[in-house]
């Protein structure tokens, strides 16, 4: 189990490192990333990224989209062109703008990811 956890973390880190390397190799992409990196750019990237996953609108897919948004944000923080807090702020804003209505309809973040329909099961007896 520990090996699996460590290996997944390594793969995520390598993916982030590769993203930064690929952006640095491509001068046009690097310049665009430096000059165009705004919330609108981030949101467009996120929209396309989520669209390409083919996720539907049911609860499991909404949870998956939220997780994918967090993963994408995390990978973009590995790119050296921008401060990490800026990228994380864009990720938080995107989550808030795109998923707040669904999360509220589920009863909040905790209940949206609880996986149970009945809150009474959470009480210790």
TrEMBL record:
Q: Name one GO biological process term.
A: apoptotic process
Q: Does the entry feature the keyword NAD, yes or no?
A: no
Record keywords = Apoptosis, Phosphoprotein
The UniProt entry, under InterPro entries, shows: Bcl-2-like_sf, Bcl2-like
| Lineage: superkingdom | Eukaryota
The protein here is known as Apoptosis facilitator Bcl-2-like protein 14
Q: What is the lineage of its organism?
A: Eukaryota, Metazoa, Chordata, Craniata, Vertebrata
């Amino acid at each position: 189990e520990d090996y699996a956890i460590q290996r997944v973390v390594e793969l995520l880190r390598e993916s982030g490192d590769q993203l930064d390397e690929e952006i640095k190799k491509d001068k046009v992409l690097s310049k665009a990333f430096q000059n165009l990196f705004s919330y609108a750019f981030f949101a467009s990237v996120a929209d396309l990224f989520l669209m390409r996953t083919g996720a539907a609108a049911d609860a499991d897919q909404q949870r998956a989209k939220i997780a994918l948004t967090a993963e994408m944000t995390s990978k973009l923080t590995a790119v050296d062109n921008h401060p990490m807090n800026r990228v994380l702020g864009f990720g938080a804003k995107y989550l808030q703008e795109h998923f707040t209505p669904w999360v509220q309809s589920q009863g909040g973040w905790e209940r949206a990811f609880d996986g149970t329909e009945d809150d009474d099961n959470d009480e210790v007896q």
